[in-house]
Amino acid sequence: MLICNIDGTIADNGHRRRERADGTFDWDYFLRPDLISQDRSFPYCREVLNRLGARHPLILLSGREERFRSITRSWLAEQGLPAPSKLYLRADGDRRSSTEFKSDILSRIVEHAHEAVSFVDDNEEMEDVCSRFGVRLLRAPAVWEDLFRYIHLL
Ligand SMILES: [Mg+2]
After folding, report:
1. What is the pLDDT of residue 151?
2. Is 36 part of any domain?
3. What is the Å distance from ligand 1's center to 121 Cα?
4. Ligand 1 centroid, distance to 144 Cα (angstroms)
5. 112 Cα: distance to centroid of ligand 1 (angstroms)
6. Distance from the CA of 5 to the center of ligand 1, in angstroms?
7. Would you place residue 34 in the very low, low, confident or very high pLDDT band (cuts 50, 70, 90)?
């Protein structure tokens, strides 16, 4: 079973990252819907997800809040990415860190999974979480090119 994160994993959000004048991260800018819509998907990930998505359900797990659900679904379609069979998002107002949220969801998925679980994520903090749950962590975005080459060897 393959689970994918979105920001920094599928969506290249580098253009939305900036600091305020006081040096803190500018979350308002980062979360502007018009800017989210302008994200590009990372190279190779569309080909890989479409190929895998034809045979396996695509499960997405993101720290984005629920209020971004429809914009996220539209963005996936615009990018030519497969529609996810499941899209786990953090509840609006959930103040847990995205690492805590993802850890919570992953533990529930693993509990009910009948197969090995792999998680594609850009966040190195997930290394510990994944090893605790026996989940194989594939580090994005570099892994897309590896998977692309692997698929084309088959
Ligand atoms: Mg991420």
Report:
1. 87
2. no
3. 6
4. 14
5. 24
6. 6
7. very high
Q: Which of 1, 10, 2 is nearest to 140 (CA)?
A: 10
Reported as a pLDDT band with limits 50, 70 and 90, residue 57 is confident
Ligand 1 centre and the CA of 83: distance in Å? 19
Asked whether 83 and 76 are in contact (CB, 8 A), the reply is: yes
> C-alpha dihedral over 127, 128, 131, 137, to 10 degrees?
-10
Average pLDDT of every residue of the chain:
95
Centroid of ligand 1 to alpha carbon of 143 (angstroms): 14
Q: What is the pLDDT of residue 154?
A: 64
CATH number, position 94: 3.40.50.1000
* 39: helix, strand or coil: coil
Q: Which two tokens stand for residue 5?
A: 């994160």
User: 96-152 pLDDT, tens per residue?
Assistant: 999 999 999 999 999 999 999 999 999 999 999 999 999 999 999 999 999 999 988
If one counts the domains in the chain, the total is 1
Compute the distance from residue 30 Cα to the ligand 1 centre, in Å.
Answer: 13
Distance in Å, CA 65 to ligand 1 centroid: 13
Q: Which domain holds residue 51?
A: 2-15+41-153
Report which residue type is found at 45.
C
